Amino acid sequence: MSMTKIKNIKPLGFPWETKDPFLFCAYHKDDFPAGDEQMGMPKKEFIGRNIGQDFVIKDGFRMYHGRRVPGFPYHPHKGFETITINKEGFVDHTDSLGGAGRFGEGDVQWMTAGKGILHSEMFPLIHQDKKNPLEIFQIWLNLPKVSKLVEPHFKMLWKDMIPVITETDDLGNKTFIDVIAGNYKGTQAPDTTPDSWAANPANGVEVLTIKMEANATFTLPASTVKGVHKTLYFYQGDHLVIEENKIPKESIIEVNPEEAISIQNGSKEAFLLVLQGKPLNEPVVQYGPFVMNTDAEIQEAFHEYQTTQFGGWPWPEQEQTHAKEKGRFAIHIDGREEIK
């Protein structure tokens, strides 16, 4: 195997391994059935499931920690950020600071947990007459020590805000690149949250999702920022050819960021996620939903959560959902409301 442009190839696991400044990526793809009147799972689907701890794919889906609605009832975060990329289905967000929202296909939520927040991420089964498929990525991006105790903040990057670049090869085959973070060949992504590691262009953070038509070829440019890590996640398709290496689907491909990478797709549509960023090069101590720099800071985070609940939970349900008829929207902690 030629390793001029490829540093390493390994199979995808769960969650997906990432390089500093990212902590990991969880990819969720579930073929949820039609919902009931409360947008929950019909009771007949509960048979054979470990409700509340259901992470095994059965009949094409998982309930995760949900007991009625699939998803993740309220839970804390501190010291890092979540980037939730929605490709299909809906996510209902609520948090301890009064924020709320529903986002769907093509939307991205960027949340800086900072000094601490409780939030819920539920997957409402809105449709009663047909299935409710869901496909999302949740990427954990670390915060540097100087920003670990910033005020929590979330921002919606709505579908119509995110640039989509179309590149066509010599045979007319197309590749589509969604620019979620960073700058791709002069096309700038929307601004992130203000205290994000990605907010400073000098950190070279780039998040892209890519769809390649069958047999398409395109070139991923070299990074314009020195000292970054760059990783490709080939999660759906047939195979790729990169520098004469045939790479099977469900592969992690760590590449040399200083080189342009020519990618030839196989006979099926291919889907990739690209993560790039300059490493923080700081100690990482993680315990569940808390990511700090020292063991003492982790202990302090637990104590703070136990005593303050990061502001408490202002919602009637731990797995809070919004009205079925409500569309995509966001209510921010400053009271500002967006309706899409």
Automatic annotation (TrEMBL):
Cofactor binding description: Binds 1 Fe cation per subunit.
Entry superkingdom: Bacteria
GO MF annotations, alphabetized: metal ion binding
Cofactor(s) for this UniProt protein: Fe cation
Annotated keywords: Iron, Metal-binding
List of residues binding Fe cation: 75, 77, 119, 121
Annotated ranges, domain Pirin C-terminal: 208-311
CDD domains reported for this sequence: cupin_pirin_N
Any Pfam family: Pirin_C
Record domain Pirin N-terminal: where: 53-141
Family according to the record: Belongs to the pirin family.
Protein name (record): Pirin
Native organism: Wenyingzhuangia marina
